[in-house]
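In keeping with the milestone schedule agreed at the kick-off meeting, the structural modelling team has produced records for the first pair of proteins. Each record is given below as a sequence line and a structure-token line. The laboratory manager (R.T.) confirmed that both were archived under the project's standard naming scheme.
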Amino acid sequence: MNRLVTLGMILLLTMNYVFGQESLEKEHKLKVKSITAGFGVYHADLRGTDDPFGSNQNGPTLSVGLSLAYKKHIFSLDVDLGLDLYPDIIFEAIGGGDNEETFFNSYDILYGREFSVFKWFRIEAHTGLGVYLYKDWLASDGRYDTKEIIGIPVDLRLMIDSSRGFSFGINPEVNFNTINTTYMGSMVFQYRFN
């Protein structure tokens, strides 16, 4: 969590630097742009695993995000959560065994831009840094093995504006890190404030 605070401080200092370079005569307003929520699926390939059932993980994801805008720049805070389902399904199919729980959390600070393709269709592209937490249940020890690392999320939102302020779309995303590069696909819903 200390890394998340450090990333937040870096973002604030960077924004202060950017704003400080502008003329004092211009109006500086950082506005709340949108909130986004989504659900979908993910796939990850574990590195350096000795898992007898393979090194792939698949399961559902949930994501939420808050975006701020300054002129054409978008700054976002996103949280992604994923739960691996394959061990539970395998253990139920073979009738027992130690039940595993594996999941990840990703806390990201992103910079992005928005591109209008049509009046009703737009693309948002984001990238940044984040803290990637990976937890794996060790049944033999009766505890979680927790790994924490800095990841590089890349996020693309293909959005359709459906009504006043509301949008929906798809969100392919990848989180590059040294634990397990995670690929996600989500259906997202967004409310835009401006």
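The second protein of the pair:
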Amino acid sequence: LQNPSHSYATAGNYDVSLSVTGPGGSDILTRPGYITVAELAPIADFSGTPTSGTQPLTVAFTDLSGGGPSTSWAWDFGDGATSSLQNPSHIYTGAGSYEVSLTVTGPGGASTLTRTGYIEVVELPRFVRGDGNQDGVLDISDPVLGLEFLFGSGSVDCLSALDVNDDSAVNLADIVFGLGSVFGSNSAPSAPYPACGTDPTPDALACLVSANCP
């Protein structure tokens, strides 16, 4: 064609030549490096799993950046820690809301994405093991509450407090252990007891609030 169009799919420098022929002969013109095609700039994007939970919270981050190729990654996890891995994991030890940013760099340039308040870490609940009704005292009312809960008529805000024997479940064994603790026939509950504290053996039992342990 006399006036063609052409799409260059790959970055680089390209020579262009034109050969023309007519009744009087022919000629060729070559222009070295006439066309320069730049790399696409990367577009930063990422995800984290999970984005909320109790401390310590381990979050696995995944680079989802598009656009042009990325050759380096700079993560800022919002708690003073950073990483240059493409898909890092990070442990948040303190409760709070954290901003996370990712800067990706490639032959075509750099791009940064910042997500404000992306990670929410909740402080571990504080409670006294055995004090199911949260009145500050381990007494007969606590095993009674446990029985009411097990048989459907009791409401409990902190199941961890009812797990008197610390086996990660609330069942009749906790009632027996609690009665033994109240009447002195067996040892006291394990920590946190007798003072408020966090569970040294975290489990799936919910503890939404403990009124006696601010």
